[in-house]
Structures are given as structure tokens and as C-alpha cells.
Design a protein that fits this description.
Elements (H helix, E strand, L loop, with lengths): L1 H19 L13 E5 L4 H12 L3 E5 L3 H11 L4 E2 L7 H15 L4 E4 L14 H29 L3 E5 L14 H19 L5 E7 L2 E2 L14 E2 H14 L3 E4 L1 H10 L4 H12 L2
Parallel strand pairs: 1-2, 1-4, 2-3, 4-5, 5-6, 6-9, 7-8
Helix pairs in contact: 2-3, 2-7, 4-5, 5-6
Length: 278
Amino acid sequence: MRGLGLVAVLLQVGRVMAWLAPLNPPIRDWQGKRVWVVGASSGIGAALARALAARGARLGLSARSRSGLEAVALDCGIDTVLAAMDVTRPEDFARARDTLLAHWGGIDLLVLCAGTYRPLRAWELESTLIRETLDTNVFGAMVGAAAVIPHLMQRGQGAIALVGSVAGYGGLPKASVYGPSKAALINFAETLHLDLSPKGLGVYLIDPGFVLTPLTARNDFHMPALISAEEAAQEIIAGFARGDFEIHFPRRFTRVLKLLQWLPRRWYFPLIRRLTGL
């Protein structure tokens, strides 16, 4: 009987350990890892590329700006492969992917950092601005994932990381298009994880708060808990090492926004207006 009791205890411990296990394969050793960073010419993408190169990763850099990529590549080393592209063009994604596969023979991690942001209130909505944001932030990310998923599934290993935003957690002033685009990306990342994790593939969702980049420089309001792109890169790498599904930061800010989502909308709306002053 005692033996059966011990077995029961061990089974319970096993269940608890399974619940506590990382949702993704942790990435701690970057030496020789083949990482494709899309949106690498500035901001978080550029900072992450530099940080990963310093850890021994082999980098493929993509963005629309060839000159911006060349500047980042100078810091990343001679092994870096440049593949300039427009994320809204599926044929560009396919061409860049094939270029990297020809150089490397495989891709270990795709990081989809490319995004656009324009502060917009409801009365400033225009069809061209709506399409520009959704094409880059949503369509571009989905097309990018579609370009590499068959390759990763064939190998049975590898991962995709998508850069969302805390703006996707709930409605915020001046984010009438950007916020919904990032909410869609959060949902997309969750769906990818449901499909791909059982096949041994990683899906990471990166949700930054305010990060000092050329895009946030457009804001004319106070940005709480603002951090540098280099600090953001370190947070992302730490999240990869833990095997997190969602890598959100800075947590002193993101945790507050997560808690706000538990409030009734009757409380949420006036509180957001008071906190933002908008």
C-alpha cells in the first residue's frame, strides 16, 4: 500500500511539474543559431540583432531600408546576410527566405519585428492610414509566418517570435488602428502556439510597453516606464532563455495594464482617460 501511495505522490508531482514547464523550448545558447530578424533596420529589431550577434548568432537582416540594414550589419559582423524586402509583399518574403536557406541550409528562429505606428484618434481615421497599418502589422506578420512554417515543420524544430504590443491588451486613446492591429497579432500568436507547439516548434509573443524608437518619437504625450531599445533587447533575450510564451516588459508597467483588463468597462474607461489625460 505504501508503494501505491508513493506512486500516487510521484504522479501528482509530475502533473505539477508539467504545468510549471516552459511553454516554449528555452533558447540560452545563441552560438551559431540562424536568426532571421525582419524589421532590423532600426528600433527594437536593430537592437536585438546587435545583441544576438554579440552572443554568436548568425544573422539574417530584413527591412525596406537597405542603407539602414547595412548600418546595423556593420555592428553584427561579416557573417550577416542582408535581404532587403517589403513585408507587405509575399513574393519578397519568399525571395528573402530562399536567400537565407541558400546561405544557411536552415532557419532556427524568425523574429517578426516590422511594424508601423501613427497616433490616430477616432475622428482622424482614413482608409489609406488604416490599410497601411494593417498591411504592415497584421498581413506582413501572417505572411512572414506562412513563409517559414513549412520549413520548420519539415525539420521538426525552430521557432517564430512576433512583436506585438501592450496596446493590444485593450483600447487606448490615439491607438485606433495600431491597438487593434496588435490585438490581432496577439490572437494570431496564441493560435500559432496551439497549432505548432505540439509539433515541437516554439512560438514567442513579445509585448513591449513604451520603447524609445523612431516610431514612439511621434508621440506627443508622456510615456510611462519608457525604456531604450537596448533594454528591450535584453528583456527579449531573457524571455527566450526562460522559454516564455509571452515576453512582456517593463513588468512594472505591463502588469498594471494586465490588471486593468479585469476591471468592469464602467471603471476601465474613466481610469484610462484619467491615466492618459486624453
